[in-house]
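Journal club prep, notes for RB
We'll compare a predicted complex against what the paper describes. Inputs for the copper (II) ion case:
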Amino acid sequence: MTIDKLVFSPAEVAVKAGDTVEWVNKDPFAHAATVEGGWEVTIPPKKAASRVMTAKDTVDYYCRFHPNMKGRITVAA
Ligand SMILES: [Cu+2]
């Protein structure tokens, strides 16, 4: 998915366990995909970062730097 102007797009994605989710950050500053009490991926400005989703990874996440940015990943087995 992309991050552009402080928005995760699409905000909700559905994947299968073992799939890699990638965030492409088009903004000139860093973002994060942060799961409260869970994992976090930092996405540097103008770069991409990814994470392999497991069956336990159906989560709501937000950006630690901009808490109004929110997204959801649904992982099917
Ligand atoms: Cu952010």
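Talking point for the session: Residues 31 and 45 are 7 Å apart (CA to CA).
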